[in-house]
Specification:
elongated; 3 strands; 0% helix
Length: 54
């Protein structure tokens, strides 16, 4: 019996995206109302991104 790897699942999720660098974080992992980037300190904005969930 051959084992097959399950196909990855993707979904549109709300994320916080840095305005200066490539850093981003899923919304459920941010505890601030107006977060700043943990890498460069710039402000972050809400965006929707299609990310792998499984």
């Amino acid at each position: 019996m051959a084992w097959s790897k399950p196909e990855p699942e993707y979904a549109d999720e709300v994320v916080w995206q840095c305005t200066e660098c490539i850093c981003w974080s899923r919304q459920e992992f941010v505890s601030e109302l107006k977060p700043h980037c943990s890498i460069c300190g710039a402000k972050m904005i809400e965006q929707t991104r299609n990310i792998r969930i499984k």
